Amino acid sequence: SVFRLARCYVKGTAAVPKNEQKAVELYQEASNRGHAAATYNLGMRFKEGRGVQRNDQYCFNLFRQAANMGF
């Protein structure tokens, strides 16, 4: 799944090099498809500034969206 591939890019594997920006793109794609955990993880990226510029307001919105999805 897109979510699992994003996690591979976060951690880096022998087959998938670590790439926070690619992880953000994939988390966004999974979030757009209604994946609650991806939405939360995307929020964490914006909270911590990992692969994106830190954005507390967008982070909060993503956390709220994930909660509304049942996360």
List the helices and strands and how they pair.
Layout: H1 2-11, H2 20-32, H3 36-48, H4 56-68
Helix pairs in contact: 1-2, 2-3, 3-4
Topology as a string of helices (H) and strands (E): HHHH
Strand content: under 5%
| Structural class category | mainly alpha
User: How helical, in percent, are the residues?
Assistant: 55-70%
Which stretches are low in confidence, meaning pLDDT under 50 for 5 or more residues running?
A: none
Oligomer: single chain
The count of helical stretches stands at: 4
Distance between the termini: 18 Å
Number of strands: 0
Overall shape = flat
Mean pLDDT: 96
CA-atom Rg in angstroms: 11 Å
Q: What does the main sheet amount to?
A: none
Describe this structure in words.
The chain has helices at residues 2-11, 20-32, 36-48, 56-68. By secondary structure, it is mainly α. The longest helix has 13 residues, at 20-32. The two termini are 18 Å apart. The protein is 69% helix and 0% strand.
Compact overview of the structure:
The chain is mainly alpha-helical and 71 residues long. It is built from 4 helices and no strands.
